[in-house]
Structure to design on (265 residues):
């Protein structure tokens, strides 16, 4: 029976240097050869999933922006875009509270120019996305986003941000000072649930592999949740199975553990 297998990107498919182990590629192609479908399932917005070494693997689809964007074969099946009114409000509140933000949309990112000077990931976004990464200079009507991420700096009024925007967003606090804000009621799990309904696949025939706080919902939701050995303690606690680290053939070993690649070495 066909299975759907979902893979986080950072810390799961590739490491901090964006290197993908050959055993991972081998496993992904092996899954497809056996009739299963493989999906990227990321907190990243679609506009920031563009590396050819990643997309060149040939995934069947992408669940992006923590479940707020779904596509297969390059066709957008589902999209949740924040309203202009809410987007305008969050830009204003974050500016007033001195919380530098990355607004994450399916086609573009809008990024604060002040506050990220020492953030290597923001520097990477500008380099990787080129003209699709736009300096944020206040709200404009062309801003279309699914979610946002922001940094909590020593001078940030984070409590006011949560008070003003908490009715609209869940705030996922990562181990560093990064906060990921996802629209209420959405997650990687809701994206997977939507796709299962669209494809007519049972929840028990789904697998997910992840490593961090924004993977917890999907690890709990799918039939079989798998945490990377290099993942957070929270991810490991949420998972049915903890595999080895990314460079210890973690994905390949996990697929073998669940009998999805029994016939290959």
């Amino acid at each position: 029976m066909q299975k759907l297998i979902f893979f986080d990107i950072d810390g799961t498919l590739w490491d901090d240097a964006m290197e993908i182990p050959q055993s991972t590629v081998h496993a992904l192609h092996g899954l497809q050869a056996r009739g299963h479908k493989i999906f990227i399932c990321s907190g990243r917005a679609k506009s920031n999933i563009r590396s050819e070494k990643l997309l060149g693997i040939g995934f069947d689809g992408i669940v992006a922006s923590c479940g707020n964007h779904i596509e297969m074969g390059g066709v957008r099946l589902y999209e949740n875009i924040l309203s202009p009114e809410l987007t305008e409000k969050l830009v204003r509140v974050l500016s007033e509270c001195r919380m530098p933000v990355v607004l994450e949309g399916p086609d573009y990112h809008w990024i604060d120019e002040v506050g990220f000077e020492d953030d290597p990931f923001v520097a990477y976004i500008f380099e990787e996305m080129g003209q699709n990464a736009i300096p944020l200079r206040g709200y404009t009507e062309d801003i279309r986003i699914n979610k946002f991420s922001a940094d909590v700096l020593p001078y940030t009024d984070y409590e006011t941000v949560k008070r003003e925007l908490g009715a609209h967003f869940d705030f996922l606090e990562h181990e560093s000072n990064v906060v990921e804000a996802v629209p209420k009621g959405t997650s990687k799990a809701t994206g997977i649930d939507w796709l299962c309904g669209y494809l007519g696949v049972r929840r028990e025939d789904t697998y997910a592999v992840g490593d961090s706080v924004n993977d917890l919902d999907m690890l709990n939701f799918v039939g079989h949740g798998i945490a990377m050995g290099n993942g957070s303690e929270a991810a490991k606690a949420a998972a049915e199975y903890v595999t080895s680290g990314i460079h210890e053939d973690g994905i390949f070993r996990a697929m073998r553990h669940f009998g999805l690649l029994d016939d290959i070495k």
In short: The radius of gyration is 18 Å. The chain has a mean pLDDT of 96.
